[in-house]
Amino acid sequence: MRTVVPVLVASLLTACTADPAAVDDATLVLVDAADASLPVDQAAPPLFPDLAVEPIVAGQPFNLTVTNVPSAATVWFVIGTNGYGLGPCVPGRSICTDLRPPLGRLGPVVADATGTARLTVVAPSRVPWPTVLVQALVWKGQNEGVSTVVEVITNDFDGDGSPTSRDCDDNDPNRFPGNPVEIADGIDSDCDGDDVPADYFDGTYSSLDWILPSTIVSLCVPISGSVTIDHTAARELTGSLTCLDFLNGSTRSYSVRADIVGNQVDGTLRQGGIDVYDLHGTLSDVLGGPAFLETDVVDPTGAEPFAGYLDVSR
Asked: Among 222, 38, 15, 32, which Cα is nearest to 109's?
């Protein structure tokens, strides 16, 4: 069966540079590692180039930039879509790619006086791969090195890590497939077709993970507690907590009362009818459960400098 991948990779990008004089007519030849006859020159220290690649969007220009290389070093960029692996090597040198062929090649570019080499590239009108792998090969005399591989997500207009082909709204970085947070706001945040219902959080929860603010010596260890969330009618959170004072063995009890506005929870923990701690948090469905309420608990007077928390799970 005839494969078109090599042709697509080779024609993936059309390179153009702001300074044509910085590019010579050399051709990068890559051969299998077994045929490379790699030399070993212990006297030449290796190069450690840093590679940065801007997001690739169909029809739009982007930059490939290498830094941390010697002035006048030769830089080539290799591009693949077939994954990581033992790739081909540069004949007569001891550098090989970490990308499985077929590979596209862009360059060469000559590093400027600051040790920077930049190539401006225009992506074609169609980029069919969700990710593209890019690596830089660099040498100057006997000094040589390769960059780490940069994995670039293509056609991701909102920068949320999901390409247009998979994103239900590529103009909103808070909406993408697999988003771990759904907050019952009428918006499909994880692109599964719907939002969680408004009464999703309603109920009484006795599975709590909590620590109250403390100066360490007055740490109070949780014993029991429960909270009731009414997200649809009263829009409030109520409950009680009991803990054991780590220092003197006595118990302390607190009542919990908070208003729910949208998905924000704001209220207090009271002891003996007196507000002791402020409670602030957000209702969210994290990874489909188990955490539905994550809050910070703070002492508003600052007498207990370490913030606590109250996490509620179903």
From this structure: 15
- Measured at the alpha carbon of residue 210, what is the angle toward residues 207 and 211, in degrees to the nearest 5? 160
What's the whole-number mean pLDDT along residues 206-232?
81
Q: What is the pTM of this model?
A: 0.51
Are 91 and 141 a contacting pair, CB within 8 Å?
no
Q: How far is Cα 234 from Cα 265, in angstroms, rounded to an integer? A: 13
Name the DSSP class of 22.
G
Which one, of 19, 26, 137, 16, lies nearest residue 75 by Cα? 137
Q: Taking 70 as the threshold, does the pLDDT of residue 290 lie above it?
A: no
The pLDDT tens digits for 6-56 are 333 444 444 333 333 333 335 666 666 555 555 554 456 899 999 999 888
Alpha helices (H) in the chain, listed in sequence order: 5-10
Q: Of 270, 286, 214, 275, which is closest to residue 246 (Cα–Cα)? A: 214
Q: Minimum mean pLDDT among 99-103, 140-144, 178-182, 263-267: which range?
A: 178-182
Closest among 55, 10, 64, 60 to 154, alpha carbons compared: 55
Structure tokens at 74: 């030769």
**Domains of the chain from N-terminus onward:** 5-153 (2.20.130.20), 203-313 (2.40.128.120)
